[in-house]
Amino acid sequence: MPRAFAGFATEAAEAAGFDSFHPDACLVNRYAPGARLSLHQDRNERDFGQPIVSVSLGLPATFLWGGKTRADRVRRVRLLHGDVVVWGGSDRLTFHGVHSLAEGGHPLTGACRFNITFRRAL
Fold first, then answer.
1. What's the confidence (pLDDT) of residue 47?
2. How many domains are contained in the chain?
3. pTM of the prediction?
4. Element (H, E) at 87
5. What is the domain range of residue 85?
6. Do residues 121 and 29 touch, judged by C-beta distance below 8 A?
7. Of the candidates 26, 37, 83, 35, which has an alpha carbon nearest to the alpha carbon of residue 58?
């Protein structure tokens, strides 16, 4: 992972109150209009004590923020280009997803959205 990416994720986590986060994994998802990500928990990491840092680029999206179970009420949060979301602690295993992406265009990414997610996997 580029040092600048890791440093950005570490600083974002620190700003949200999560000291000593040093990511070793970076996932990049590309969403075209109509794509969505159903409610899920991030459970592939070995240490759930580490936060998740998520960066949105391109088209706006509606982030779905649920609860501890899939049946819990979901809040909708509009994410714009450059928005960063950090979660961890008691919220680390909160169900979350992305609502179906609307048609549109962005000057830097065209007709898509990218999400970069930083984690401590090992």
1. 87
2. 1
3. 0.94
4. strand 84-87
5. 3-119
6. no
7. 83
